[in-house]
Known about the structure:
The chain has helices at about 50-70, 110-115, 120-130, 135-145, 150, 160-170, 175-180, 195-200, 220-225, 240-250, 280-285, 305-315, 325-330, 355-365, 375-400, 415-425, 435-450, 455-465, and strands spanning about 5-10, 15-25, 30-40, 40-45, 45-50, 75-80, 85-90, 155-160, 175, 185, 190, 210, 215-220, 235, 255-260, 265-270, 285-290, 295-305, 405-410, 430, 470. It has two domains: about 5-235, Nucleotidyltransferase, domain 5; about 250-435, Nucleotidyltransferase, domain 5. By secondary structure, the chain is α/β, with parallel strands linked by helices. It has a seven-stranded mixed sheet with strand order 17-18-16-15-19-20-21, sandwiched between helices. Strands 3-2-1-6-14-13 form a six-stranded mixed sheet. Strands 4-5 form a two-stranded antiparallel ribbon.
Amino acid sequence: xxxxxxxxxxxxxxxxxxxxxxxxxxxxxxxxxxxxxxxxxxxxxxxxxxxxxxxxxxxxxxxxxxxxxxxxxxxxxxxxxxxxxxxxxxxxxxxxxxxxxxxxxxxxxxxxxxxxxxxxxxxxxxxxxxxxxxxxxxxxxxxxxxxxxxxxxxxxxxxxxxxxxxxxxxxxxxxxxxxxxxxxxxxxxxxxxxxxxxxxxxxxxxxxxxxxxxxxxxxxxxxxxxxxxxxxxxxxxxxxxxxxxxxxxxxxxxxxxxxxxxxxxxxxxxxxxxxxxxxxxxxxxxxxxxxxxxxxxxxxxxxxxxxxxxxxxxxxxxxxxxxxxxxxxxxxxxxxxxxxxxxxxxxxxxxxxxxxxxxxxxxxxxxxxxxxxxxxxxxxxxxxxxxxxxxxxxxxxxxxxxxxxxxxxxxxxxxxxxxxxxxxxxxxxxxxxxxxxxxxxxxxxxxxxxxxxxxxxxxxxxxxxxxxxxxxxxxxx
Length: 477
């Protein structure tokens, strides 16, 4: 293995972004944050958008910070991952047609049912293998017909690919993120343009697909100069869906493991070599998303830390400024499973007064109504753990796999209460970490693409050597 190299991962989630430096010493990676910045939806004229130009400024700032403080000659490559399904539309000159809509925008309501009139849910699942979610890109594009942007669009770029375009001038669609759109044939791994034709949507806006690990080329010359980075730096299309990168970094992931990529969303799944598309999978509403290096992520989207994050935001508006540790500590002091909600119930999807919605749900279902911060947070965490148990048991039955270990990566792996509750609910040991699993997976794919690592198996061995993990044993009762 070659020694001494640097890799930069730009990892942007729905609530925050970061630029992470991975220092390779020939046997393991040391990760260091060079820049962290907030992210969030912005409201304008009754719609929710992403401030994409601000995110672009933050990316450039993080890359420039690296150039100011590190020996740039060691930098091999840069990779970008973000959340899925959202996109920007470019006109014929390559100009962005307004800020991208955010997936929680209310324009998506009812679109799935309208699409059903042209393509049945059964046929759509058979082709795309995707979980039915109201914000899937296909439904968003169908909603886009009501505006003027779609008619003017020459290219649709998913969020990380939009940044790829601004970095390199290349207009492409990286496969792992494209696989989340409901626009991709899951088995053939090509765009299902015939589905767009039937909906009156323009298939010509879909760019060429590339696989994770593809070298896109150098930075544009003007960016090299502005950022202080050399021409030798390569931009790599990693697993640009943040979950694809997170799963790439799960140490010791095997056929007896389930993973939970835990952040604003919880992605609960198993890794396979082929899609699993049948009626049982459709009725379970599980999704077949592309992974890195030929893998398939058979998983289910579960509303994750969003519930508690949105509660925290509401409490701050009310003048109660609580940090995350305080919320978790108060939740830990509350009796277990006093009140439970369905984290995936439609009323919890949108921005709003989450504590009030949780209280209303518990009141409506005849349960004790949580009132305090601790009671509401404990309800969130208990409910997530119980939901994980339902999904993991269902995946085991669907696949015939014996799942003996649950591996949690992402920010939620640092929530020791949730990790222990998950072990208890699932009656399986939980191995938690790395917290920066997405950034590490991003970096591992870069290292493979640039010739520093031979394959995914070796990369996961490197991941295990590079990070600390915590084990939680299930408790009875």
